[in-house]
Design a protein that fits this description.
304 residues; alpha/beta; Rossmann fold; N-(1-d-carboxylethyl)-l-norvaline Dehydrogenase, domain 2; 7-stranded mixed sheet; 12 helices; 47% helix; elongated; 6PGD_dom2; gluconate utilization; phosphogluconate dehydrogenase (decarboxylating) activity; Decarboxylating 6-phosphogluconate dehydrogenase; NADP binding
Length: 304
């Protein structure tokens, strides 16, 4: 199979290598000429054989960059060809992109991709949305990218289903990471426990909480005991927010995932206005002591 790949960053570059190892011919395009095989999208399309449907896989940032890439490909590809959006696009963008391409007879597949920088060796979990006909045209690439066992790939449903499934996957990931993080903080603050990293390491085999995330947390703790080199600031990629919004739209209670999302917002505050208000109210109704800010040294410190 010949396939075009747009976007050769951390994920896209490794995906190109994995597909090449499986025997696929990959023509890659990136804005960075040092990693790009061609100088433009049009050159990429020209290098794909004309005797079979042309498949172009897009791995660029969601939103404007993806929209612009799809628009350009709509003018370069033709009847029976397929565009795959493997980035973290919002699922509501997929029908828009599919309709744009359908005007030219071009198919569209949205694909949620999970695996990160480890996917090159371990394979990627792939969640595809689109027609069975279009998914079949991309199947050799799916088979090259997926893990070596029988799991790891699913045709999740119609257009948008792949990105929707990946969105929920990332929402679950938020909650799992938050649970491990809160457990870590409690163990660190309890003087009774002297070997926190070793405790987490002991959970990696035989327990019901073992997971790849736990493996990665243990590695981080072993590399940087106490995590002294990392600031407690966590961004969100957008998919956690989208998951909570979808839960609201479908009236699905989402206690853990929404709490994990809000915890990330808290991490970005040097001082929490909400907790300042809580402290102020406790002082007002109960005379509870409050801690002084650096700007107000005259306020007496709270008694422990």
């Amino acid at each position: 199979m010949h396939i075009g790949l747009v976007g050769l960053g951390k994920m896209g570059g490794n995906m190109r290598t994995r597909m090449q190892r499986a025997g696929l011919t990959v023509v890659g395009y990136d804005l960075d000429p040092k990693v790009s095989d061609v100088g433009s999208l049009s050159e990429l399309v020209e290098q794909l054989p004309s005797d079979a449907p042309k498949v172009v896989w897009v791995m660029v940032p969601h939103g404007g960059p993806t929209r612009a890439t799809v628009e350009e490909l709509a003018g370069l590809l033709g009847q029976g060809d397929v565009v795959v959006d493997g980035g973290n696009s919002r699922w509501t963008d997929d029908p828009i992109h599919a309709a744009m391409l359908a005007e030219k007879g071009i198919g569209f597949v949205d694909c949620g991709v999970s695996g990160g920088v480890w996917g090159l060796e371990n394979g990627y979990a792939l969640m595809a949305g689109g027609s069975a006909e279009d998914v079949a045209k991309v199947q050799p690439a799916f088979d090259a990218l997926r893990p070596d066992d029988e799991s790891g790939f699913v045709h999740a449903g119609k257009i948008g289903a792949g990105h929707f499934a990946k969105m929920v996957h990332n929402g679950i990931e938020y909650a799992m990471m938050q649970a491990y993080a809160e457990g870590y903080e409690l163990l660190e603050k309890a003087e009774l426990v002297e070997n926190v990293t070793e405790v987490f390491d002991s959970w990696r085999v035989g327990t019901v909480v073992r997971s790849w995330l736990l493996d990665l947390l243990v590695k981080a703790l072993q590399d940087d005991p106490g995590l002294s080199e990392i600031r407690g600031y966590a961004e969100d990629s957008g998919e956690g927010r989208w998951t909570v919004e979808a839960a609201i739209d479908h009236a699905v209670p989402m206690h853990a995932i929404s709490a994990a999302l809000f915890a990330r917002f808290t991490s970005r505050q040097d001082e929490s206005p909400a907790m300042q208000a809580v402290a102020a109210m406790r002082q007002q109704f109960g005379g509870h002591a409050v801690r002084a800010t650096l700007e107000s040294p005259d306020v007496p410190p709270a008694k422990e």
